[in-house]
Amino acid sequence: MFLICAVVPAQNEAGRVGKVVEKLLRLPVDLVVPVVNGSVNGTPTEIAAFPAEKVHPLFFREALGLDIPRAIGSAYALRTGATVVLFVDGDMAGVPLRVLQELKEAVIAGTDLALTDCYPPEAPLPETPVTRRLLLLRRELNRRLQMPELGYASPAHGPHAVSLRFLRTVPLAELAVPPVALCLAVRAGLKVAVATSIPHHKLGSPPRGSLHSMRVAATIIGDCLEALAVCCGIPRSREKDGVYYNGYNSRRRRDILMAYLSER
Fold this sequence. Notes:
The protein is α/β, with parallel strands linked by helices. The protein has a domain at 4-123 and 145-206: Spore Coat Polysaccharide Biosynthesis Protein SpsA, Chain A, CATH 3.90.550. Helix content is 40%, strand content 15%. The protein has nine helices and nine strands. It has a seven-stranded mixed beta sheet with strand order 3-2-1-4-6-5-7, sandwiched between helices. A hairpin with a 2-residue loop joins strand 8 and strand 9 (243-244). The relative contact order is 0.16.
């Protein structure tokens, strides 16, 4: 018997997050947990319109930062007895049901971390130097984990799904740095695989400007550097060649995450 829960981080995603939730309910899943944080538009109202028996939102006045909502949602899902947890961001209104279904089915079939390849062979790679650097680091990390078949796939990018065993094995606080969570899952002998693919530009995320994109890329580069350090058994660092890759890392509200985890 599987209990399927979907966690949906959402910050100022009015007009998109409702479409994501509607799609998840058609999948279907047993429970949708939108983690609404730092929203000043109509996102909370849009979420509140869904039936309470299927949609259990978590509201935070503060912006939680990248990946913190996913970790908090995972803790809530674990407490409710979920055996499969599906993650899809509230701005990814373009993700087709096929992708979500394939992730869900992969975990039911025994995969502990089912990933989406957002740069399949038919999709062009991004041209910006910082994004190319990011993809090279992702591939390097996957090779260091002796999983070259993952290619560029990462839990930092695109929808993905995890098993109950994953949530009980990988410290929930580490989900705040997805490449580190990936590393810990592989080291623990969990089954990790690419379960589906969709080109990045089809996810449906709206453009947010070049500065935002560069900061997100810098965040994930720093995350990959931390993961590589974990793989090598050395102190974690976000620095490479004299450059410290902070991006949005310092905006991650780990204090709120740790308080939430300690309460439960």
